[in-house]
Amino acid sequence: MSDEFQPNSFPRVRRLRAGVLAALVAGTALGGAADGALVARARADDTGVIRPDTQIQTLPNFVNLVKQVKPAVVSITASLRADAVDDEGGMDGQPQSPFPFPFPFQMMPQQQQRRTVEARGSGFIISADGFVVTNNHVVKGATKVTVTLDDGTTLPAKIVGRDPKTDLALLKVTSQGKLRFIELGDSDKIEPGEWVVAVGNPYGLGGTVTAGIVSARGRDIGDGPYDSFIQVDAPINRGNSGGPLFTQDGKVVGVNTAILSPSGGGSIGIGFAIPSDVVKNVVYQLEKTGHVTRGYLGVVAQQITPAMAKALGLKAGGQGAPPSGALVASVSNGSPAEKAGIKAGDVITALNGQKIDTPHDLAVKVASVVPGTKATLGFVRNSAEQTASVTIANLSGAASPDGSVGDKNEGGPRLGVSLSPLTPDLRQQLGLDGTVRGVVVSDVQAGSAAEQAGIHAGDVIQAVGNKPVENPGATVTAVRAALKANQSVLLRILRNGQNIFVAVTPGSGDEGDSNGDSDDNQ
């Protein structure tokens, strides 16, 4: 269906909505009477029925909030090469997931000339001197970026830095006067059921306001190694990418990033926002250095099943849930974890006093620790709770918590991919059985040799040349050996159940990317 407006259809839509509204109003009146009867019976019933202590409240009014925050919300236009836009109108440069949904919002490409197209997104100003936060996929691959303020003023923007792993980017605009800006709030304090407001530029309609509630926290949607999204039911659509999510006190608690849409179309009330606590850390580093460094512990961890918990002598979770924690499957040689005495079979339950629920939770929390910082690990060994002091290292040049291997600081050609081990969770998500061996491509750097060769996130690299590979470290070693012998490297890849060969030539892509992807891995 075309994204263009169809004015002739509007009267029919209004008549239809009027009928639905009447039905909803009638339903509300009847529902109120029924609820009253149920409450009366519940209070009279003393058999253990739950009696919530609630107060009837009217819906909140967001008029004053929106008037005050809108001047800091901006529309972003990114100019892209025509060949950077795929056949469906989305950008090849957007983060790609091996899973169809959820997905980052695609922009609204609008043809300028045959050589360039425009893609539109959202953002918000966080300082009087013009720093602007948006999504990485809004500006990824852009040759020119402009920011349009709420009053219509258009300003050229410079990309200060990008972080593909959290899908965040920091821009800088220059204005003759001080700009009005908004503050980042504390996303750790929000609760499911709390009202939130989204402001953005969906389908090019700048300044659009929608409201809803927080549906859940800590969502891992398989889009990146450090996913920990806020789920909301506020209607957000294509073009809302990078826009702010406000609480009623006017603070930004999230950056709208992705939606769940089975049809691939608009909102169905399941949206995802990057928590402001993540944004603060990433934006601070992008502003200071133009790139992001992450903490490294040096373990490969896995989920604890009920059978494992019983064998390990762990206490069961509440209501039959498996115990929380991350079971250490292996420890990297010379890693901070090994130096701290962590062993395979330990169950990590806390980091600096913060509870660890899952291996993914451990990866997210470790990555947020500044390299060189001392941290305290809580873990269980032989049914006994213990603690250990560990000095978190820099992820760049080492194996990450999810098994990725980085080599940014080492010289030589780079393919431009991030690799992850083929864990049981990834096998299930990719539909692979236990006989498949290899490593999963978790991310592909924009403009890299790998992207130019057509490698996608979700591909499983099974061999480098004629050498089978089963972990990220072995893959990197094999790639380097192949490059020493030849200018190109031949990869055997499993994609959608089919084996294919892909030849990658380092230097064929845009290796001169200066937008801060300093911790992309090979």
Automatic annotation (TrEMBL):
It is found in: Periplasm. The keyword DNA-binding does not apply. SUPFAM superfamilies: PDZ domain-like, Trypsin-like serine proteases. The keyword Ubl conjugation does not apply. GO terms for molecular function: serine-type endopeptidase activity. Its main location: periplasm. Its EC number is 3.4.21.107. It comes from the Bacteria. Residues 396-415 are annotated as: Disordered. It is an enzyme of class 3 (hydrolase). GO terms for biological process: proteolysis. Substrate binds at residues 137, 167, 239-241. Coiled coil: none annotated. The active site is at 137 (charge relay system), 167 (charge relay system), 241 (charge relay system). Residues 298-366, 408-497 form the PDZ domain. InterPro entries: PDZ, PDZ_sf, Pept_S1C_Do, Peptidase_S1_PA, Peptidase_S1C. Keywords: Hydrolase, Periplasm, Protease, Repeat, Serine protease, Signal, Stress response. It catalyses: Acts on substrates that are at least partially unfolded. The cleavage site P1 residue is normally between a pair of hydrophobic residues, such as Val-|-Val. Gene3D superfamilies: 2.30.42.10, 2.40.10.120. Belongs to the peptidase S1C family. This is Probable periplasmic serine endoprotease DegP-like. The lineage of its organism: Bacteria, Pseudomonadati, Pseudomonadota, Alphaproteobacteria, Acetobacterales.
